[in-house]
Structures are given as structure tokens and as C-alpha cells.
TrEMBL record:
Keywords: ATP-binding, Membrane, Nucleotide-binding, Transmembrane, Transmembrane helix. One of its GO terms (molecular function) is ATP binding. InterPro entries: HATPase_C_sf, NatK-like_C. It comes from the Bacteria. Residues 323-427 form the Sensor histidine kinase NatK-like C-terminal domain. This is ATP-binding protein. The chain crosses the membrane at residues 6-21, 28-46, 66-89, 96-116, 128-148, 160-182.
Amino acid sequence: MAGSLYFWEMLLPALGLCLPLNRREKSLWKAVACMITGVVLLMVIMKLAQTKYEGTLISMGENIMFSMMMLGWFLVIWSLVIGCIYFFVQCSLREAMYIFALSYGVEHIFYCIRLLTEWLTGGHIGNTAPLIYLPCMAGSFLLAYFWFAKGAAYQGTYLLEGISASTSSIVLIAVVWGLSIVAGELNYAHIHSIYAIPCCIFMLSSQREQLRREIERTEFTKKEQLWEKTKLRYEMSKESMAVVNQHYHDMKHQLMALSTMSDEDKRKAKLLDMESRIAAYEAVVKTGNEILDTVLTEKKLTCQINHIAFSCIADGAQLSFMDELDIYTLFGNALDNAIEANRKIENAKNRWISVQIQRKKGIILIELINPYQGTVDFDESRMPVTSKADRESHGFGTKSIRSIIEKYDGQMIIKTEGQKYLIRMIFQGKG
């Protein structure tokens, strides 16, 4: 009975730590198979111990064989829990051992709380009494999931590459376990509990903070890469637009000169040729915001190439409160998504994008609408789930949009209706 209780004491915090992580295919069946195998081995060891030492009170030092059997008992349970972790979530054996070390730290906190309760009540409330045992079991799971895992996991995994203290944490847990065994044999378990609780809390806290810093570092690296790419695209777009504007004005003057040509046929042929060339430059958008003009013109030219109708009613002056690169990144990502959705529509007559930027009743409203083909799935936070294989890379564009909106205390609403995809951004009027 004690063996099965200890197994569940270890498994519950491990489950809490694994909940936010990516699961393996058929993970439940694999974990159950591992559990059954381990339970059988555990029962064999316990049966051998009961047969050989039943009714005999001995200490670890009095019987080497008994001590080895007890060590084997612990190793079977630990291996069982590590195996369940390994087969349940997508992780390496090293990562499974790291998660186990964390779960042991959580379990040991509540084990020590039970021992202290027993000691403080003079044994009236035993450490396995339901009054204290059940709340501690529940507490170990809740602490592991809500306090640790929920804020330390990143996209279904723990970022262990930059965690320098993972090995030392496992060593620390081993030391704590060894001291708890020795203290128990010497009847000083309550003294051990007093220093073991803060020791485990310190270890768990340091690991949680390191994991969170690793998440921040990863996010910063991705944003920095996106920033550099956006900056490069913006500079290229500015240069391209300068050339477009120069050609546009040159061609206007050429048209005026051609209008005085005496050869009617040549004049008409030249005019038709130049008018067709000018049509491409009519993509230039003027909104009153140079940065917005750049990105909208760039995307409008892309729309022309892909036979996508592009309509824009925009008061760019309303975006003066935003940083230049934020404007470029925000509209660049949103319009790239809209263009990609239109490309999937076979009939070019059904391709279109609508952009509106206006101020209404003290708020700045931005709306981008486009048609789409197929279905759009959303995650728990109402963010669209990309259909591309490289989910992490492509999903970051939408996250970047949301990040910029939140930077300016705005709101974002994404919804679909009648095969139309709408992204609405709302900002409080600035000034």
C-alpha cells in the first residue's frame, strides 16, 4: 500500500508539470503500458521484502541486502515515473529526468509538510491521514501546474538549452533525498523537513525563473530577427518608391511633349504604350502618412501582379502616434496574410482586399477584410492557427501584430463570416 501511495505522490506533480507540454502520438497508451510494467515490478519487490522481513524491525545499517532492496524499490518507482513522463510528452530522456527532478522537489515539499504536521500534533494526525494527505496530494498537483508549469513552458516544451543549473538541481534533489533517508533512520525527520522545504522551494524558484528568462530571450531573438528583416524590407521599399515616383513624374512630362507630335499614328501608338506603363504607377497610395503610403503601395503592386482588387480608404494621419517600423510591420504582416489567402482562391474575379483607417467617436479604427477559401481554425486565445507546416515561424507574424497592438494599448478582434476574414484594430484617440 505504501509503495502505491508513494507512486501517486510522485506521479501527480509530474502530471501537473507535463500538462502544458506537447504530447506524443498515442501517448496515453504508452504511459499506461509503462505504468503497468512498473507496477508489476514494484509488487514483486514488495512481495519479496514482505516474505523475507515480515515482522522484523531493522534499520538500513543492520542489513545490506534490505538496504539494497529498498534502494531498488525507490529506483523502480522513479524509473516508472520517468518512463510515464517520457512516453506521455515529446521529450528526450534527459528532459524526462529533469521534469522528474522538479516533480520530486514539489512532492518533497508536501511530504515534509505532512511530517511536520504529524510531529506538531504529537502523532494525532499521521502523515498519511486523509485530513492532511489528500490536501497535500491536491496541493502538489496545483503547485506544479499553476505555479510552475503554466508560466515556464513555451510552445509545448521547456527550453532547457540555456538552463545551466539543471544538472545541479538533479544533484541537489539527490542530496535532499539521501538526507531525508538518513534523518528518518535517526528519527530526525522533522528537523530535516524544516530545512528541506525552503531548499526545494529555492531550487524550484530558480529553475522557474531560468526557464522564464529563456522564454524572454527566445522571444527577443525572434523579434530582433523580424525587426531586422522588416527594416531591410522597409529601406528597399523606400528606394523602390522613390524610383516609382520619379518615373511617374517623368512620364507625365513625356506625355505632354507627345501631345504636340505631328505624326498622328506615332503619337497615338506612343501614348497608348505610355498610358499602359502609367497604369502600373497608379498603385501609389496617398494617405497622409509616408510610412503607411510605402507599405500600402508595395502591397497594392503585389495585388496587381496577383490579380487582387485592392481598395483603400485611409486617413494615415491618425497613425502619427505609432512608430514608423511598427506601422510597417503591422500592415506588412496583415496584408501579407490577406494576399496569401487570396492567392488560394482560383477564380481571380473573387479576389479582393479592403483597407479602412478612420477615426470614429474618439477611437481610431483599422479594418482589413479579405475573402478566403476553406476553413480557418482558432486557438484558445482566438488567434488563427496557420495551415503551414512551419507553424512556429509563420505563427509569429500574427503574434507580432498582436504585440504591436498591445504596445499601444489597443484591441484586436479577428472573426470570420460568410467566407470573409476580418481583422479589426481599435486604438483610443491620441490627442
